[in-house]
Amino acid sequence: ETSLLQLSLFSTCRLGLNFEMTDKALLVVSECPPLGLESLKVKDTQLRASSYKRRGLGPHRGRLNIQSGTVDGDIYDGAWCAQYRDKKQWLEVDARRLTRFTGVILQGRNSIWRSVWDIVHTYKVQFSNDTLVWKPCMNGTEEAIFEGNQDAETPVLALFDTSTVARYIRINPQTWYQNGTKGDICLRAEVLGCALPEPTESKDKLDFRHHNYKEMRKLMKSVQDECPDITRIYSIGKSYTGLKLYVMEISDNPGKHELGEPEFRYVAGMHGNEVLGRELLLNLMQYICQEYKRGDQRIVHLVKETRIHLLPSMNPDGYEMAFKKGSELAGWSLGRYSYEGIDMNHNFADLNSVMWTAIELETDQSKLINHYFPIPEQYTTEEAFVASETRAVISWMQNIPFVLGANLHGGELVVTYPYDMTRDWAPREHTPTADESFFRWLAVVYASTNQVMSNHDRRPCHNKDFLRYNNIINGADWHNVPGSMNDFSYLHTNCFEVTVELSCDKFPHASELPIEWENNRESLLTYMEQVHRGIKGVVRDKDTGAGIADAVIKVDDIDHHIRSVADGDYWRLLNPGEYRVTATTDGYFPSSRTCQVMYDHYPTICDFRLTKMPKERLKELLMKGGKLPKDLQLRLRQLRMRKLRVTTKAINRRRAAAAKRAKRV
C-alpha cells in the first residue's frame, strides 16, 4: 500500500482536458463517479478551506449546484468564498479512504444579491495522504493549470490526463475575476474519483443506470415480457417533439378497472433534469415483477388488490437535453422545462383561485361546491399556453379514477402536500386543505421510511432546514406554486397527491443509483399501500342493484367531497376514527351511516343502497311501459290524497273570504 501511494503521488498528473457540457465529457466522466459533494455523500466535516469570509460562505457551501438563500448575508449562501484574495487559498476534500482521483468540476457563486462574477478563472490541484505533504498535479515539469469558469452557473469539467491515488485533494485558485474592489475567490465544486476498493451495490438485481428514451422503452418492454400476466404498457399522449408518454400498468387484470380495486399512480420527470424519480420507477417495475414471480406475499397482495400506474417520464424532451450533457454537467436548470419552455408544475388549471373567488362572492354558502371544480373555458382552448404533456396528463386523470398518487421531483429532501398555492399570492403561507391531517399522514409515511430523510444527522441540502419540520411541509408554506398538479388533482378529481423531493442532487451519478434505490424502496412500497386506508364501498340503486355513478360522498366535518365512479364504487381516504358518511345524488333520497376506520392495513367497507324518489321511479317505469309495484301505487295514492286535502283547504279558505266580503257589501 505504501509503495502504491508513493508511486501515485509522485506520478505526473499532466494537463487534463476541459469541457463545458459536451457529449464527449459525459463519456469520459463515467470512468469514475463524483465523490458526492452535490449529493451530500461527502459530509461537511470532510470539507476544509484555507479561510472563508463568514459561516454562510464556509467550505461546507462549496458544493456543485448548491443554491443560495433569499436573505442577503444569511448562513445559506451559494459557494465557498475565501476571506483573502491571493494564490494561497484552497478548498480541501477528505475522501476518507484511498481514492483514484480523475477530475474536478467547478462553478462560480450562486447568489441573487451579489455579483455574478464571483468566479475562479484558473486553478491548480494538489494531493496528499496526510495533509502534511502535498504533491501538485503536474504538466511535464510544471504544475498543471486548469481552466475554471467564465460565468457563475455553467459547470466546467477538468479531467486529469493521469489519475492519482490519494486520500485528500485540494483546489487552489490562481486567477479570478477582479474589477477594483469587486470579485472574490468563490467556487462550487465536485470531485471525481473511484474509491479503493470499489463500493458494494444493492442486493436487488436491477438495471442501475441512466436510461434515455430508447433505453427506457426497451427496459419497460423487457419487464412486460418477463411478467406478461400482470403488466401492460400504454401511452397517454406525446411530448411536443413526438416522444410518447409511456405508462407501465401493474395489476392482476391489466387493462381493466375492477370493482372496488383502487387506482394508484406515480409520476416522475415532470422536470426533465430531475432524473432520480425516473430511474426509481424503472427500478420499481423491475422489482415488483421479480418479487411477484418469487412469491413475495407483500408484493403479491399489492398487485392483486391495487391497480398501479407508473409514468416514469412526463417530460421526455427535457430529459433528453439533460441526458446528453450528463450527470454533474447539466447544471441546475437545463432540461427542467418542456421543449416550449413551460414549467409543467405551474401549468395546470388554477382551480384554487376559482374556489377562493367563489367563497368571497357567494352569499349563500349552501350553493358553494368543494370538489370536482370545472376547468375554466379559456384554459381548454387551443390558444391556451398549455403544454401537450400537461393536456395528456389531465386527460389521463379524467379517464382513470385515481385515488392516490405522488409526483417525484429532485433537488431537495422533503415531502410537500397541498395546497401548493397561497390564497392571497403571498410568497409563502401555510394554506391547508380540508384533509390536512390525512395529507400530513401521507407525507410522514414517505419521509419516515426514507433512509436519508429519517437520518437526523444529515445536513440541509441548500438553504432550508427541513429537518426542523420532520422533512414534511405544506407546499404553500415553502413557496407559492400556482397551477400545481397536486392542487389540480385534489380540486378536479378524487385523487390525493403529494410531491416527493428525492435528493439534493437533481441528476445523481449512475454509481449512486443503487444506494438511492435502497434509500427509497421501502418508502415507495409503503406509500402505495396507503391507498387502502379509509373507507370504500359501492353506491347502488336499492331496487335494481345497479351501481350509481357520480354519487357524492360527504363526510361530516370535512368540507371536501368525492364521487363514485362508473360502476358506483368509491374510495374515501381517511385517518382512523368514527365518521358520519352520507351518499347523495339527483333523483334519490340521501342515505347516511356511521363508518369506523380502524388502524388495519385495509379499508372499512361502507356500501350504500339509495332509494329513488317516487317521481323519478314513476318516470322511469312509465318510459319503460312497466306496471307500477304496490308500494309505489300506495305512495302515489298517499301523495294524491295529500294534494287533494291541501287544494280543498285552499278552495274553502277562498270561498269563506268571498262570503265575508259579500256580507259586508
TrEMBL record:
Domain (F5/8 type C) ranges: 30-194
MF term (GO), any: zinc ion binding
Q: What keywords appear on the UniProt entry? A: Carboxypeptidase, Disulfide bond, Glycoprotein, Hydrolase, Metal-binding, Metalloprotease, Protease, Secreted, Signal, Zinc
All residue ranges annotated as the Peptidase M14 domain in the record: 209-531
Main location, first listed in the record: secreted
Q: Where in the cell is it found?
A: Secreted
Matching entries from Gene3D superfamilies are given as:
Carboxypeptidase-like, regulatory domain, Galactose-binding domain-like, Zn peptidases
Entry-linked InterPro entries: CarboxyPept-like_regulatory (IPR008969), CARBOXYPEPT_ZN_1 (IPR057246), CARBOXYPEPT_ZN_2 (IPR057247), FA58C (IPR000421), Galactose-bd-like_sf (IPR008979), Peptidase_M14 (IPR000834), Peptidase_M14_domain (IPR050753)
Q: What is this protein called?
A: Carboxypeptidase X, M14 family member 1
Q: Which organism is it from?
A: Oreochromis niloticus
- Is-annotated flag, keyword Iron-sulfur? no
Q: Which cofactor does it need?
A: Zn(2+)
Which family is this sequence assigned to?
Belongs to the peptidase M14 family.
**Tell me, what's a Pfam family for it?**
Peptidase_M14
Locate the active site.
E501 (proton donor/acceptor)
Alphabetical GO CC annotations of the entry are: extracellular space
Which GO terms are recorded in the biological process aspect for this UniProt protein?
Answer: proteolysis
